[in-house]
Amino acid sequence: MAVMDETKRNSLRREVRGSYSLLVALFHLLLLLLSPSKTKAAKSANISLPGCPDSCGGVAIPYPFGIGSNCSISEDFEVFCNTTYNNDKLFFLYNHYLKTYSMPFQFQWIATQILNINISLGQVRVNGPISSQCYNNNTKLDNSFGNDFFNFESTPYRFNHEKNKFMVIGCNTAASATFLIGGKSPESMTMSEAGCVLRCFLESLTNGSCSGIGCCQTSLPKGTNSIRISFDDDESYNNNLVRNFNPCGYALLLEADEFEFDTRYITTDELTGQERPVLLDWTVGRNTTCDVARTKQSSFACKSKNSNCSDSSTGPGYLCNCKDGYEGNPYLDEGCQDIDECANQNSCSNRGKCHNTPGGYYCSCPFGWRHTHNNSRQCELNVVPLAIGTCAAIVLLSFLGISIYAILERRDLSKIKEKYFQQHGGWILLEKIKSNQELGFTIFTKQQIEQATNNFDSANIVGHGGQGTVYKGTLRDHIAAIKKCNIVDENKKKEFGKEMLILSQINHKNIVRLLGCCLEVEVPMLVYEFIPNGTLFHRIHNKKQGTCISLATRLIIAQESAEALAYLHFSTSPPIFHGDVKSANILLDQNCTAKVSDFGASILAPTDEAQFVTFVQGTCGYLDPEYMQSHQLTDKSDVYSFGVVLLELLTSKPALDFDAPEEERSLSSRFLCAMEVNKMHDLLDNEIKCEDDMEAIMKIAELAKECLNMKGEERPTMKEVAEELDRIRKLKQHPWGVEYNPEEIETLLEEGFHHNIKSEYSGYFNIDKEAEESIAVGR
């Protein structure tokens, strides 16, 4: 014991790390554990009268019950212990069960065995015999039982109506129960009856279920003190039809929670002669109440001064119970003893000291501690200066921590920005800009971009696609289009600054100017000239009713766009490939002049397979099939994409139509099929069919067909495309002199200025935002 206690002490010492207060609590706790005499005394307090047996066969006999008239409160509570069995058994002194036999007729009183007694609930559990009706092979009653009587009339006992059930078991059985309720005489009693009729076959039986097939049950009326059980004598309920599997039928009263139906009760005579638990309620002062009984203290059953009296809820009489904080037998003098709550280690918190009081306890706190507001059994620190000092220290430390964290965060952020700036060739680009002040190209900081876009507020988004998102922002004194790209090829990071330097020198009337870039981020951001008058995609596919775009106007836009691309291919060194040619990247200014945009994004195009899928999502319907396979951008890739733009100008149909049948979704595929069968006329926009200039239209169609050749080497160059478009314009014999329509241009401009800028620019980088990895389209 000493070794074990020392181990406990060492363990507790390690937990509290030498805390003096907790060691004191441990000391008191050990004293309580080592001296449990007070608790034991309460638990071992007498439950019966002095000199009277307090148990029989393991069943406690608390007063008012007792063996012998001098040990019980009245003869109704007198019991006896039968020692003739291997194990002693406790019975009521008087028999309460009458069993009758039909062959020959006779009856027998059977002693009622007591299983346990509960004085706090006022309940006693007894064994109740099972009534049975069995047939032999000649379908004759085989000394069966019937008309049994469970009688507690004129006693303080009543059958518990909540837990007891009347139950009938069998497959060709009819039985009933007559319930007698209350009263000193037969005239004052009331009666009710319930029964069950069972017919079934073996296949329909289910274990554990008393649901009306082979087994049925019914509740008891409240206050029942006598029950008569009987079987129906009608020959239609004999077992002739079922005796091969059901020799007996049963009727019984039992505590339902203690019983589970089993099909063997049907197929065997296992229940014959057996007993099952029945729960009885009992009271003292059988025909009175607490208020009346208190007027006669000599006969008042609640003898302990620490007891309470409560009237029975099931009939006349009352019960006694110990008050809260006490336990024991309230029917004995000094029977209710104080409970020592301090014997429970969890009564107070680890800081509190427990003090037992009569019927309760309280917890005291050590010096420097106090009870919590909501719980008098919990202790908390009560050192106000310490609390104030601790709070001040926490605030100061928090402030210092936040300041240090902010400094380190800014330092790390600065290092990250510098790392990205260097990776993207920022120092080389910066030196070139300083040495050539006429470039007109600016390297913006991340902070400037964030301020311009209001921290990339979604309200400033004017377009988005597979390559990235475009924001409208105000930089210094002008509005710009800022493209925040999604991905970048890791292999091209170091060359990015050089590429920007080349792109910054592009100066062509039909190309949107690249104003600058931001290199302090993982994926560089590009800053373009802002064109507010909408895209070619919007003009073709979102025309207002009554607006007509003539073939001449379409030719001008096509030729200007082709010249811009030819300039990128042949007039810059090294050549620049656009990589994302589509109608959404051809803008129209206030003079309806075509301006090719987003030409710098091609240098960010990835070669990695996974990133490439994301990159091309915004360009479905325009991509060169060879580029789809090799991921290598060439000048002929732009030619193919421009061929699709020519088809849009001729047909006013989108490059990829997800609402069309699958075989007609790709405009290029539909066009090539139509050319094969000479049905190009069916695809043309109605606005140019009426111009009666099919020669020019067919030449444009033939040019588009050459651009869409599956082999890149067999496609024309952009310079050849631009020259061919110029020849086609000349076929129209100076269209500005013949077909120029000022009202048409005015209508287009009017539409651009009155249209919401955001909706126009939403096509800037994304015409296929609904495409979900549908990059392998037919050509």
- Indicate the mean pLDDT: 79
CATH fold label of the largest domain: Transferase(Phosphotransferase), domain 1
- Which runs of at least 5 residues are low in confidence (pLDDT < 50)? 1-43, 610-615, 735-779
The outline comes out as elongated
Biggest sheet layout:
7 strands, mixed
Give me the side-by-side strand order of the main sheet. Answer: 3-4-5-8-9-19-12
CATH fourth-tier homologous superfamily of the largest domain: Transferase(Phosphotransferase) domain 1
- What distance separates the N and C termini? 91 Å
Number of domains: 4
Structural class: alpha+beta
- Helix count, per DSSP? 21
DSSP summary, beta strand count: 35
CATH class designation of the largest domain: Mainly Alpha
Radius of gyration: 51 Å
Q: What is the percentage of strand-forming residues?
A: 15-25%
Helicity, as a percent range: 25-40%
Protein name: Wall-associated kinase family protein
Domain EGF-like: 338-380
GO biological process, one term: cell surface receptor signaling pathway
Main location: membrane
